[in-house]
Amino acid sequence: MKLLDDLIKINTYQGDYTEMIKCLVEYLKSNTDCEIQIQHISQNKANVIATFGNPELLINCHMDTVKPSNAWTLDPLSLNEQDGKLYGLGACDTKGNIYMVLKAIEEVKPKDLMVLFSIDEESGIKTGVKYFLESDFKKNIRRAIVCEPTELKLVSKHKGYYSFTLENIADSAHSSMKSKGAIIKAAHNITRLDELGFNVGIIEGGTAGNVVSQKCTYRASIRTFDKLSDVVNAIKSNCRETTIENRFNGPPLINKSPLFQGEFHEVDFWTEASLFQEAGVNAVVFGAGSIKQAHSEDEYVEKWQLEKGIEIIKNLVKSTPQI
């Protein structure tokens, strides 16, 4: 599994994709007859697009991973195999699926297919998929498979993901004045947000323990089937005197008529399949690995899932749309 080992060794969580792009291009040139195009986005950031023939079907894998925590007991940038499990940063989410797709297209030699290796899914406000969907590369694409860890299940529905930066302001003063500072205002708002199902992951504010806080900024997100406008209205109704900035707008995926054969499922996590669906491309989610291992220490994917996934991808690439 040299290819997967090569992919695992590459650090993409710091936003520099140079080495990963080189690895993908060299592999595609050596093992397929696709046309390779680089969609440059910014310094050290670019999507890699592999095109076979005249495709209406696209497969998407994101190149980046989250940053490894200090809780790893194995080297996160090295592939380790134990008891049928393949350990390494991104083995599950989603370098294992990059490996699976590359092996599948190497073996099946597709006639009409586009493969998009995209950037910044884990951390970007504007991701590589969004840049792709704004480009001419997308114009003939009708169907998309977005690779994420679904345990080899086809997924056609999931909640949206919305992220916000919120801020409260107050007049600073000596703490003896017993004024209600920005942190106190934020604390009441955060309690309300928690009751509404939001996650508040970052809080910043204040300058000293004996000074009434003048500003408090916090980051909140929610997973829901509601529209962005409804979510914003809920924040406004429950968090008064609060500045609201939408950081990330990830709509829900609701694909009622997938143009693929199979049984379809719903998952709790968000994927970029919803961006394709919103842009008029019929999209589903599929991949090896479990979301339980994604973003965790000692992340792994089961080897049998990659092997079976290769065969499933080969069949999906060869199949005709369900009309």
Structure description:
The protein is an alpha+beta fold and 323 residues long. The protein has two domains: 2-159 and 252-318, Zn peptidases (Aminopeptidase), CATH 3.40.630.10; 160-250, Alpha-Beta Plaits, CATH 3.30.70. Helix content is 28%, strand content 30%. It has eight helices and 18 strands. It has helices at residues 2-9, 18-31, 95-108, 128-133, 182-195, 228-238, 273-278, 303-318, and strands spanning 35-42, 45-52, 57-62, 80-82, 85-87, 113-118, 143-147, 154-158, 160-169, 173-174, 199-205, 211-212, 215-224, 242-250, 253-254, 264-267, 282-286, 300-302. Strands 1-2-6-3-7-17 form a six-stranded mixed beta sheet. β1 (35-42) and β2 (45-52) form a beta hairpin. α1 (2-9) runs antiparallel to α3 and α3 (95-108) crosses α8. The longest helix has 16 residues, at 303-318. The mean pLDDT is 95.
CATH class of the largest domain: Alpha Beta
Tally the helices: 8
What overall geometry do the principal axes of the alpha carbons give?
Answer: elongated
Q: Helicity range of the residues?
A: 25-40%
* Whole-number count of domains: 2
Oligomer: single chain
Total strands: the figure is 18
By helix and strand content, what is the structural category?
alpha+beta
